Here is the input.
Amino acid sequence: MGNLVIRDLNQSFRRDDGSNLIVLDNLNFDVKDKEFVCILGSSGCGKTTLLRLIAGLDTAQSGSINLDGEEIQGPSPKVGFVFQEYSLFPWRNVIDNIAFGLEMNGIVREERYRIAEHYLDLVNLSQFRDSYPSELSGGMRQRVAVARALALDPVLLLMDEPFGALDAQTRNMLQQEILGIWQKTKKTVVFITHSVDEAVYLSDRIIVLTPRPGRICKIFPVELPRPRDRTSVEFAQVRREVLNLINQNCSIQ
Amino acid sequence: MGRRAENKGKDWRLGAAAILLALVLWEVIAAVIIRYPFILPAPTDVFAAFASLLQTGDIFLDLETSLIHFAIGLGLALLVGIPIGIMMGWSRRTESLIDPLIELLRPIPPLAWIPFAIIWFGLTAFSAGFIIFAGAVFPIIINTYSGFRGVPRVFVEAGKMLGCTRERDLIRYIALPAALPSVVSGIRIATGVGWMCLVAAELFGVSNYGLGQKLWFYYSLHQMDSVVVYMILLGMIGLAFDMVFRYYVDRHFLKWRTGEVV
Here is the structure.
């Protein structure tokens, strides 16, 4: 299961001058089990803030986030997180990075390597089992980060612009790969991006946020069949619709 | 890697040639120009002194005594410095509590503690150890502290998301390994500073043996060739400590850092 229900979510930060900066303004949305949802918005619209709240890394000012009927109150092994920046532990090699969560959850050595190797295989990096993160390319590091997040078998996978720092070709390849992994592992995915192209390629639904304060501008279903072809007329059509929507209704007022 | 190793080989031969040249120059200046061993003993005198010192076997007792003093000082510095550094780096409140105190004590030269070392510990190995401790503890505290302070937030949060949520586990599994390069470089600095304090620590008669003690002893006998033997020994052992860090600790202990910009 992996049903995410978000109700009346508000978050604001106190500025140095004492005034309040509203970051998220009354957000309401659901993500269904096994759904792939992208949250699309320009930088500073509170996308990352939202994801950190869902992860339990921060606490909301008001409102509720429920995962399968349970309120999120802190980091939980049911939720996996792939960070925007490189987050692999540089002192652990690839296999020990993937096995970290299992180790923390008391899984015995043999069993955790067996599980970690399965996920290493899933991201096609078996030949880099004993490499250190510093020896991997940016794309490979993020694939290991995905494997590490999946190793605890979470129901919900949160991804915070995981491919933002990668070149376009690598990004396209990893998008394809993450869809394959999603179809195999049947996770609910909430994926943050500022790229319309990425959102249209990946999503079942796109949640478009307006910036400052972050509000839901539009929830946009993408009904293109998979695998999607970026160069097709239909793809271009959907992309144009989303872009027009952003330009007309969802930019800074 | 291959090219680097090759370059190292070239550097090594050049360096050896320079040392040889310096020895020849030294011999010429001492034996031909100055000709007064009390002012400057020649390398050949020093070598002869070394040979006769080896025969008495005292040199090994000196070495043992000095290493004991050093081990007491450095061991104590690690035992005290690392926990204090961890506490200061991990918690803002402990930092505010301890930092002013550390900053007040740190500028006091280690040798200025000699009078109190004698009063508190008498003329014992612990007295010498205390002076070495006073020199070694601060680099360890400061580097451990700054290492822990600099642990990237994303590592801590990644750890939390993977079920490493208790503070003790976060320190053990995330902060400590992330801070390790900084901690190790602090220990390396402390080793250097501590070793420098050794000569002074053995100056005030805590033992009848010791590299520093013998240096002063032969000075009082005006046997300057033996003084140079002990100077060289002190330097060589200091160098050996540094080599341990450079070639062993960095390569084997911190091998994950290879390829990273340091």
Summary: Chain B has ten helices and no strands.
